[in-house]
Design a protein that fits this description.
The structure is a single chain. The protein is globular, with a radius of gyration of 20 Å. The chain has three domains: about 1-70, Structural Genomics Hypothetical 15.5 Kd Protein In mrcA-pckA Intergenic Region, Chain A (Roll); about 70-150, Pseudouridine synthase; about 155-260, Pseudouridine synthase. The strands form two sheets. Strands 5, 6, 7, 8, 9, 10, 11, 12, 13, 14 and 15 form an eleven-stranded mixed sheet that branches. The protein is built from six helices and 15 strands. The protein is an alpha+beta fold. It has helices at about 15-20, 30-35, 100-110, 135-145, 225-230, 245-250, and strands at about 1-5, 40, 45, 60, 75-80, 85-90, 115, 125-130, 150-160, 165-175, 180-185, 195-205, 210-215, 255-265, 280. Helices cover about 20% and strands about 30% of the residues.
């Protein structure tokens, strides 16, 4: 069984939206089957329709645990006594109920440690996530991210081919929490925060698409997706900032964005993590 308490984001939305987003291992076909069997309760009452839900509603989903990925092994790229690097799948949040972090912490409970994430990825962005396995490592890594001593590189498959092979972009981002959207402006406006995004073209394709290496100096919500769309190169598969007709053409339903490289450029003493200086982790992955 899974229990969800509806947060403000889903107020007035359909039941399927909160369940499919909060528990990504439940597919829509499975959701329909659960409804038919009346295996979902909203505020204690069984439902057989995709009803509207509201903030603070309690949702119970009666599903066997072995049908969920939560009990499956995660893909570990690197691990030692201090850190853990995991390759995240699409469709799962970093934190929250039934998240990657809750899965990791459950797996490591018997080992006497509680790994904590050092950065975030969007739910449908795949790739490398860095976890600290102890408080000292967490404090060091959070400081290193803040001081830009850890590079985060992403692969992005975008529609269009930029004229310049390499460019450092500066703009301003506003986060609209009510709409769960961000907006980009080339000039400063009240409430906007500065963002810096750098891209390098890795591959140009004949279908007017390109593969970019993207690095961010500021880690704002949806920064890469929104910034690339703003300059005219939307990420293929991005339903929020991309273009539906392009996504349909390439038959992609989630953004083609992968966190594929972490590089440790430590400038100052790094305590027990000094051994990571100059080290990098790279996923051998292709976007297509």
């Amino acid at each position: 069984m899974r229990k969800l308490v509806v947060d403000k984001k889903y107020n007035g939305k359909k039941l399927n939206k909160v369940i499919l987003e909060k528990i990504p291992d439940i597919k829509y076909s499975t959701f329909c089957k659960l409804l038919r069997k009346k295996d979902i309760k909203v505020n204690g009452k069984r439902v057989n329709k995709d009803v509207e839900i509201f903030e603070n509603d309690e949702v119970l989903i009666y599903i066997q645990d072995d049908l969920l990925k939560s009990n499956k092994e995660i893909e570990t790229v690197f691990e030692d006594d201090n850190i853990l690097v995991i390759n995240k799948d699409a469709g799962i949040e970093i934190t929250g109920d039934n998240s990657l972090t809750s899965i990791v912490q459950e797996l490591y409970k018997k080992k006497g440690c509680k790994p904590m994430p050092c950065h975030r990825l969007d739910r449908n962005t795949t790739g490398l996530v860095l976890y600290a396995k102890n408080k000292e490592s967490l404090d060091i890594l959070l400081s290193k991210f803040k001081n830009h001593e850890i590079e985060k590189h992403y692969l992005a498959w975008v529609y269009g081919i930029p004229k310049e092979k390499h460019k450092r972009l500066e703009a301003y981002l506003f986060k609209d929490n009510k709409k769960s959207m961000v907006y980009i402006s080339d000039i400063f406006k009240k409430g906007y925060q500065k963002i810096i995004t750098t891209y390098t073209i890795l591959e140009k394709k004949k279908d007017n698409t390109s593969i970019l290496d993207v690095e961010i100096e500021t880690g704002r919500t949806h920064q890469i997706r929104a910034h690339l769309a703003h300059i005219g190169y939307p990420i293929i598969g991005d339903g929020k900032y991309g273009k539906n007709e392009i996504n349909k053409t390439f038959n992609r339903r989630t953004q083609m964005l992968c966190s594929y490289k972490l590089k440790f450029n430590f400038k100052n003493d790094s305590g027990l993590l000094e051994y990571l200086k100059g080290k990098e982790f790279v996923l051998n992955t292709k976007m297509i």
